[in-house]
Design goal:
single chain; alpha/beta; 12 helices; 6 strands; 47% helix; globular
Length: 418
């Protein structure tokens, strides 16, 4: 019998690697593979992160980009004035010319500052120079002001006027927004009742009802004391879901003079000087600046209160600073003939310097204008309260403000507070 110590060995014995050592080897190999895969993924992602965060290298002699302000969604207000322009309405028309900027500034002081469009209709009667003269809703209030100044009192003589046609066109031939959140109002202003004998398809009752159906409130402002006009005006306001007011034949608008007018007038002219008229609207801007420069101090004070709230120097289009701010144009893409006179022939770096200087001055002026305009608005409101407490009758401008407040309160969906 052979002992265990004498058992013969195999000529090719199997290596005796323990099981736990083999398992550890497998784990190390797997970890290595995972680490390699993670490194590869990191290499694939990293360049995208580096590109996104890398600063753009500055180029020599390249002007710095103009700072672009974010465009905010503003509330909107649309107003149409249908004005009797016959001979008896001279006082009202003259007063309206003085007060149009005051009303615009009043609207602009609301919160938040809205986009405002104004339309005009002058109306008379058959046999006069015109029956209606119409200017569509427009956000260029310098142009609206120009159109209004083209109105004068004339014609008339018989009591009724073609009120029905004026109101029908105010409702149906203006480019009213279809957005139900927009505050939309018509001011019907006159001293004579409508013709009801023409049978020409125009009917003031139908027009007032249509306005109400379309979310347009009709505020009827009677000038003078004609009882027949009062009866019809009250009916129009009722059908048009608006407000009836009565004012003096002349419009009853008191002159606005505040302690802040002179400084605001000076700041108005300085702000106007920051505009850079360019492109197809260059002539309009230049003409508007000239007209504004010639206006009396109270009108300048009211106008600058409006344009300042919009961050502008002109009330319409054509200012390069506005369009650069709103990202509507790029300086590098403008043809040489479209450039403002101040920038023509200048290297890009010098053009950028002129623009930056204008922007800086405008921002500085706006702070002081805003401060003084708030004080002026408060002063005017206090004077109006004192006049009301003393029993003084409202002028057209005060009546218009009260009616507009009613319209704004009745449309909370507008997001506008006045």
């Amino acid at each position: 019998m052979t002992s265990s110590s004498e058992i013969p060995r195999s000529p090719n014995p199997e290596p005796k690697t323990p099981r736990r050592r083999r398992l550890l080897t497998y784990l190390l190999v797997g970890a290595g593979l995972l680490s390699a895969a993670g490194a590869l993924a990191a290499r694939r992602v990293a360049p995208a992160r580096r590109v996104a965060s890398a600063p753009t290298p500055a180029r020599e002699n390249t002007p710095q980009p103009v700072a672009i302000a974010a465009l905010e969604q503003r509330p909107r207000v649309e107003m149409v004035f249908a004005l009797d322009t016959t001979g008896s309405m001279g006082g009202l028309i003259a007063g309206a010319k003085r007060k149009i900027w005051s009303l615009a500034s009043f609207v602009a002081q609301g919160q938040p500052t809205p986009d405002l469009r104004i339309g005009l209709i002058g109306y008379r009667d058959r046999g006069d120079d015109y029956v209606t003269r119409r200017f569509d809703l427009d956000d260029d209030l310098d142009r609206v002001f120009k159109h209004l100044h083209g109105f004068s009192a004339g014609g008339g003589g018989d009591t009724p006027e073609h009120v029905s046609r004026a109101l029908s066109e105010a409702v149906g031939k203006m480019s009213w927004s279809s957005d139900p959140t927009v505050v939309k109002v018509i001011y019907l202003v006159g001293d004579a009742p409508p013709h009801t004998d023409y049978q020409d398809g125009y009917n003031f009752r139908d027009a007032a009802r249509e306005a109400a159906q379309r979310g347009i409130e009709v505020h009827a402002v009677r000038c003078g004391n004609d009882s027949h006009t009062e009866k019809v005006w009250r009916l129009i306001a009722q059908l048009g879901h608006g407000q009836y007011s009565t004012v003096e034949q002349s419009g009853g608008m008191r002159e606005e003079h505040t302690p802040y007018d002179e400084e605001l007038a000076r700041l108005h002219d300085e702000l106007s000087g920051t505009a850079l008229a360019y492109g197809e609207h260059r002539a309009e801007v230049v003409a508007a600046q000239a007209a504004a420069a010639a206006a009396p101090a109270p009108i300048k004070a009211a106008r600058v209160g409006f344009v300042n709230r919009k961050g502008k120097a002109v009330a319409g289009k054509g200012d390069l600073l506005d369009d650069l701010r709103d990202n509507k144009v790029k300086l590098s893409e403008l043809a040489a003939e479209a450039l403002p006179a101040e920038l023509r022939g200048l290297p890009q770096a010098e053009q950028a310097a002129v623009i930056a200087s204008k922007q800086g001055k405008r921002q500085s002026l706006n702070k002081r204008i805003d401060e003084l305009t708030r004080l002026r608005t408060k002063h005017i409101a206090e004077q109006e309260r004192k006049a009301e407490a003393a029993g003084a009758s409202d002028g057209f401008d005060v009546a218009a403000k009260k009616s507009l407040r009613k319209s704004v309160r009745g449309k909370p969906s507008s997001g506008f507070r006045l």
